[in-house]
Amino acid sequence: MTARLLPADPEFATASERLLATTLRDQLPDDAVVVCGQRFAYQGRDLEADLVVAWPGVGVAVVEVKGGSVWRSDGQWWQEWSGGPRRVHPVDQARRCRYALRDVLRRHSRVSDLRAAHFAAFPTTDLPEGFTAPDAHRWMLLDRADVARAADRIKDGLERTPDGEVPTREDVEALVACLTGPSVPPREVLATLREREAACELLTREQARVLDGLEAASRVDVRGGAGTGKTWLALEKARRLGRSGQRVALMCYSRGLAASLEREVAQWPRRERPAYVGTFHGLAARWGARPGSDDDGDYWERRLPEQMASLATALPIAERFDAVVVDEAQDFDAGWWPAVLAVLRSPQHGCLYVFTDDGQRVFGRRGRPAVDLVPFTLTENLRNTQQIAQVFGSLAPAQMRYRGGDGPAVSFVPCAAGDAVARADEVADGLLDDGWPASSVALLTTHHRHPVQVERQAHGQDAYWATFWEDDDLFYGHVLGFKGLERPAVVLAVDGFRDPARAREMLYVGLSRARDLLVVCGDPEQIRAVGGEGVARRLLRPHPGESAGQGSGAGGIGLS
Q: In order of start, what are the domains of the chain with their CATH numbers?
């Protein structure tokens, strides 16, 4: 029995706050939440609630914590401080924060009139027996002796409160989403997104030093987990090769990533653009390969690559390439690499750069080039917020350092797998209502395609992927097709997995597609079974205790 603690690694002002927060975390049930250090702007004041306890079936408690020695004298509360006694107002602070929370819920959530009470806690003070105060009943005060049964004391106090509806699990999740989610004015959302994007770009451009160090190597395998900037490096390497006068092919497997690469390259000066940008199979089609149908797996996996190798060998040297750059190279099958090498003017010595994440082998292919490549591993996640990177970090092929900055806590909406898409729709609608630009939001599924995706793909793949850059609606996709892409906000519907053998890789891809905000909808036990305790601990029941070196952190980026 362990409640969620939000943020995952709070920064406490005092040891007393940490003691009470962690004690409540351990005493409360799994579906309860303890929000730490929640800030409010209320009636012209900047307030901070030390703890907000949201407990399904019981109520919501706002707790002000005062450490050290606390006493009441001459009608005032006092606290011993390093400079001597000072007046404090624990009950007033807790009361104002409760009112502020009520107002926030009324403005930004469908949940408002919940049963709520405020408390003042003195974890290192012993209150006298029979203590009373005009501004607080004894049940509203927790002293040192009460810490061992703090959850029971809060429950008792909430059950004494007659007003308000007892919160359900759904109410608690709505409260959490309201406090940690993006309920801010649209202009502020846009400004923050642009600032985060600029910060990510600066961090990613620092990766250019990787290419500087590999300049002398002509055949390299750059490996890295999600968010390490592999796609940017692939583009930059292709650009550098083109700038030096080489004829370059920049290729990948998925259509969505290929379309993204094409759009990026189209903005470059002509002399820097690769001679070919697109999918591996698209290059064969350009050279006149016989067409096949989308449902003919043998055509795409075996016959077309064989055609491509034959066509490349028959081409004039001038139409082949000095260098090939492959992004998401783990998607390529062993039988495809002979064709990749065949497109080079010098298959034995031509430049080959591949960018790989073995954790994202969602297509079950295990091929690698049958040539010697210099390995280089990227170890820093630059694209995702620390909160998001922490959630999927245990699924990455290697341990990473998280440099992507702070952001909102990752939100989890528990539901049956069969209800995940419907719940994700509700969350996505809420993001748009809160001011998120539609072009910044994607709704992804792990099993069945969303009905909107099915409808859009009926008009052809090119028309479907064109919607990725449209501004009038959010993007609907499947994790298989979204690999290599990202969105500032992703709502992930974990609606099951078609192939259990690839479920872990697909969950990894889905969790890592969000740059700034991630909301996951699904069955907690299924996610635990697929992702393991590392994912479950951070996504379902986050708690403090991670080292700073592993990227744990609290705080926000202005989206919560």
A: 4-180 (3.40.1350), 207-380 (3.40.50.300), 386-550 (3.40.50.300)
